[in-house]
Amino acid sequence: MSPKELLYIEDALGHLKQIKTVCTDFSNQLGDTELSNFVQGIAQKQQQTFDRIYNLL
Fold first, then answer.
1. CA end-to-end span of the chain, whole Å?
2. Which residues touch 49 (CB under 8 Å, ≥6 apart)?
3. Residue closest to 39 by CA, chosen among 23, 28, 21, 25
4. Domain total for the chain?
5. What are the two backbone dihedrals, phi and then psi, of residue 30, each rounded to the nearest 5 degrees?
6. Measured on CA atoms in the order 9, 41, 26, 24, is the torsion positive or negative?
7. Residue range 8-18: mean pLDDT, rounded
8. SS3 44
9. DSSP letter for each residue of 8-30
10. Which are the contacts of 6, defined by CB distance < 8 A and separation ≥ 6?
11. Mean pLDDT of 2-7
12. Average pLDDT of 2-17?
């Protein structure tokens, strides 16, 4: 894998991590339990995607 490809992967992993953090923070601020659970589910899917990509390396 070239250095440029690694930079793309690092960038994608950083974005996934940021989305997870934003979703988790937003979920904690929501008053609606159903909506909060939905957003938390999105955060979990982002973490799963991050883990899958990371484990491929």
1. 10
2. 16
3. 23
4. 1
5. -75, 140
6. negative
7. 96
8. helix
9. HHHHHHHHHHHHHHHHHHHHHH-
10. none
11. 93
12. 95
